[in-house]
Structure prediction request, 76 residues.
Amino acid sequence: MPDGQEEAFVRRLLSEVVTPRGRLIVCGYGSPRSEQAPHPVRRLIRAYGFESEVELEREAPEGGGPIIELAVLRAT
Prediction:
């Protein structure tokens, strides 16, 4: 997703793709081996004015830092 278009894309998915009361799972992946943090989807979702039903961050199996973070949004 090109920078600056994420919020519009999430809003479009929630209004045009996800069924009413359905859920959208937004994920960000990283790689501790490559010293790349996951995309900060939880922070971004909150900045867009959404409240997540679930937020999650998980460590890589081999350790070294987070490998994924996600936010679950409910469509209206």
